[in-house]
Amino acid sequence: PLGNYKKPKLLYCSNGGYFLRILPDGTVDGTKDRSDQHIQLQLCAESIGEVYIKSTETGQSLGH
Questions:
Q1: Residue 38 is part of a domain; what is its CATH number?
Q2: What is the pLDDT of residues 1-43, one digit of tens each?
Q3: Residue 41 burial by CB count (10 A; 0-12/13-18/19+): exposed, middle or buried?
Q4: Range of the domain at 46
């Protein structure tokens, strides 16, 4: 269903072992550090096929 997933998620790439992170300056990269505060992400389905991803730490978002 469309909507907001309240609990922060970690987006992990098993091909390389990186967690997606969004830094305060808006840089998006990956880190292997599971304790990095910038890997906590809020996901929200805005419409069918469109997901909004926002850092819970910085407030920066992907795609907006």
A1: 2.80.10.50
A2: 566 667 899 999 999 999 999 999 999 999 999 999 999 999 9
A3: buried
A4: 3-62
